[in-house]
Structures are given as C-alpha cells and as structure tokens.
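Attaching the record inline, Q. Sequence:
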Amino acid sequence: MFDALSDRLSGIFTKLRGKGKLTDADIDATAREIRLALLEADVALPVVRAFINNLKERARGAEVSQALNPAQQIIKIVHEELINILGGEGRRLQFAKQPPTVIMLAGLQGAGKTTLAGKLARWLKAQGHQPMLVAADLQRPNAVNQLQVIAGRAGVDIYAPEPGSGVGNPVQVAKDSIEVAKRTAKDIVIVDTAGRLGIDEEMMQQARDIRDAVDPDETIFVIDAMVGQDAVQTAEAFRDGVGISGVVLSKLDGDARGGAALSVRHVTGEPILFASTGEKLEDFDLFHPDRMASRILGMGDVLTLIEQAEQAFDEDQKEKMTGKLLAGEQFTLEDFLDQLIAVRRMGPIANILGMMPGMGQMKDQLAELDDSHFDRITAIIRSMTPQERTNPKIINGSRRVRIANGSGVTVMDVNQLLNRFVDAQKMMKQMSGMMGLPGGRRKATKSPKNKRKGGKGGSSRPRAGGLPAGFPGGMPQLPPGMDPGALGGGAPGLPPGFKLPNLDFSKLNKPKRNDGDKS
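Structure, as predicted:
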C-alpha cells in the first residue's frame, strides 16, 4: 500500500546523503518534497502541516546542525514523526474487570466488519480467551449467514437468533447476547453491527441504541484503508455520533495510496489497535506504529519476521534442531523438509523477504518470486525413501530418475536440489554460533589438525539475539553466499556496518510463459 510513498521518500533521502552539512535552503527543499509526497499519498492536509512543521523545527535544531551525518539525522526525524502520526506507542484492548468484555464493531458497509469480527475472534481465541460473535447486522442481505460461516472457520461460537436480511431487532439481539455469554462462560462478546454505503442518521441512531444496550468496553471503528480521505471523514462522524475508542485498519494489502492509514490516528485522536492485511482469517495482527513507520521508510520489520518464525516453528522442532546443532549431528533432508514446511507457514516468500532491512529497494525482484518453487522441492523430497532423506549420498543416477519421475520434475531439478542441500549442510554446521541458541557447547573435535590451528573445532558459545532456534539458515531454497555490497550503501536508518544480503533471485523467479522450462 505504501510503495509509492516509500519510493518517493527513498529518492528524497538519496539526494541528502552526499551533503556534509545542510543549509536552511536544503531543509526547506527537503520539507517541500516530503510535503508533496505525503499529499500525493492522500494524507489529510492537517496531518501534513503538523508533520512538516515538526520536521522543520527539529531539522533546524542542534540534533542536525551539530551531527556528523546530518542526512541520517533527517531520516531519523522523519521516522520518529511518522511514528508519532501513527500513534506513538500502540495501545492494547481494554478488558472488563468483570467478564464478559464487550467489543462493538462499527463502520460503513463494505469496510470489512464481518470478516474482521472473525479475525478478531480467532486472534483472541489464540490468546486464551473464549470469544462469542453476535450477529447484530440484520440489515445487509446474508450478513448473518456470512458471520456464521466465518465463526465456523474461526472455531468460535456465534449468537444469531434472527435470520437477518431485514428481519429482527438488532438492539434486542445485542442486549440478549450479554446474558447468553454469561450463561455459557464466554469472556468476550464481539458485536457485528450494520453499516450503510454512506453516513445517515438511521444508521447512527441504531449504533447508538446498540451502544446504550450493551455498554461496550471497546467501540472499534473499522476503516477501509483503501478509501482515502472519505474514510477519515467517516471516522470523524462515528467519533462524534457514536463515540469510538479505537480503530482497525482493514485491506492494508491493497494498492491504494494509504493516506487514510496515516491520517486516521491524528484526525480522530483514537489509537489504531489492529491491522488487517488480507482475506484469510490469519491475516490480522496488532498494529505497531514503529514497525509500520520502518516499513514505509524501507527499513524492514525484523521483529514481526521473528514473531512469525516463532509461531511457524513449533517447540519440538526448535528443540530438535537446537540439539542437532549443539551436538554437531548431520543435517538431513528430513530436517530440510521440516524447515521448508515451516517457512511456507509464515506466508509468501516475497512477504518474508520484504521484512528484511533494505529489501524495499528490491520490490521488482520480490514481485517476481514464485512460491511454486517450494512445492517442487517438497515434491522431490517426498518422493525419496526415508533412507535417501537421511543419507543423500546413496542417491545414484537411477534413483535420481525415479525421484524425478515420482515428483513430476526433471533430473536436472533433482540435481540442483541435492547440490543446494550440500551447501545448506555446510551452512548448518556454522549455525550454532549465529542463531541465538539458549546455551551449551558443541562437542569438541578430537582432530589433531584443529588443535594445531588454535582449536577451531573446540567449544563455541552461541551469541544472543539471533532468529529463533530452528529457523532455516539463509533459507534452504535460497542460494548461499551473502554479499554486503549489493545495494550500494545500504538502507537508511540501519546500524553502521549492517550487512545486506545479495540474493540471487533467478532460482525463484516466476517462470515465463511458453518457455518450456519447469525449473
């Protein structure tokens, strides 16, 4: 969504990097370009004015004029001001002291309220809660049926006593749901209310009546991030007409300019609680202003990447891989397959790599990545016998032909996988000192050569702060070899000496049509 804004800001910062000192004219020119970039991104004018005023005031202060690298200080200021616009520190849901906690969803028709109700319920269930959905949108045709289907997919209960499509009293349904939740020991009630294509007094009055009937602990406005300035005006209308305590951004995966997402917090004064980034129920998470600002500026989102990795790799898998690394055991194709499946659970490879710092400068290459390459690798490994997965050295010519036929690929594909697996094995031998493992030492080698070389094969304590144990080293399917000079100067805002990967994307590119190439 923020690609156009990210590209504009990146170009502005590139012009600053060669300057040893910034004059007032440089600051004015930079502020003017940033102002135009924000306006083109459909950011609300009051927000742009506040942003530029703060930027100019801070840029003319001591933190820039006395800095060794004033360009980096400007980038730092822009980053911090973006965080402020997006809400500073993220706020979390406020739960009732006496359950159930009541969450009322409000917004226009088409903003994604019903789908988001299911996403929120699924997320809360994963946090250990017992949510219940309430079908109080009795206006839109089939809204009740849609919520019932979503509740089934999310694995949560639903209270839907009325058929909807214009039949039933939504205020009575919402009121009765509280007693039902108490009887069935549900600690959270999520009320899905009706919307309209535009603001009207009838919709507002119904929302106020439901609010008065259930006394919600949170009244969340669901905003379509693709709508633009109209969404911000609608948010103001709901704030004044119903009263909202937080905002959820939906459809953040769209290709709109994204100004509404940057404006709504500043205009309404209410925090952004969650972000919805896709159609699947799992495409939903807490909103982190600092991480969103980093993504806009092309700095990546390593914390989210690590969190997704921790969720994708289960504890048994982490412990198993940690034990293998610490004991110096052989990394097998079975391990290779387990890690590959876990990486697939994290989402599309382009999204994963896009969270790495500096990858914002490689959008075109990321767009060409094809996840079907993972499926071919999985098919090849699954076509092997358990003995072949454990000891791939026994895979001779005839076995390779059999594996290729069984997985629907060519012998060349099998050869390429085995060659890359050898590289992955070498990489895994060095992983124990790079991954932030919980502790321990590897078994010391008894080789006299290592002793003469200063004990290279001896004990090695892992360093803290790496990716979760079991995360694939460099990802098995990517060619090894990381060159820090790939992006010419690195990405803005990264620590000094930060190494950016030089990835060869040719192996993962989407195949061109009619070229007959299966690889």
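Residues 435-505, 515-519 have pLDDT under 50 and may be disordered. The chain is about 50% helix and 10% strand.

More tomorrow.
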